[in-house]
Write a structure and sequence with these properties.
The protein has 93 residues and is mainly beta. The protein has strands spanning 48-49, 70-71, 76-80, 86-90.
């Protein structure tokens, strides 16, 4: 007969092998896992970027960043036009 019991959560650390013993015959399931083990992979790309006319992908997925990312404004400028107004050029083209 299998009885479903409330799980018991244990946290422990040892550098030595260990044994688990039971007084009577028991059936149990053990799930072992590791979380937060090892150093994260650092982000090695640019931290300051300027938008371009092409798609850009910054390889930040699952990376540890050292500082904030700065996305600069889209390059643009204005000039006077013959009608007496201003013409804005966006993107530098």
């Amino acid at each position: 007969m299998i009885m479903h019991c409330k799980p018991i959560r244990l946290k422990f650390h040892t550098d030595e092998p260990f044994k688990i013993g039971f007084k009577n015959e028991q059936t149990f399931t053990a799930i072992f896992g590791s979380y937060g083990v090892g150093a994260p992979t650092p982000y090695e790309g640019a931290y300051v970027v300027t938008p371009t006319m092409e798609d850009q992908t910054l390889a930040t997925k699952r990376r540890m960043m050292e500082q904030n990312m700065v996305v600069k404004q889209i390059p643009h400028y204005t000039t006077a036009n013959p009608a007496g107004g201003q013409t804005m050029t966006i993107g530098g083209i």
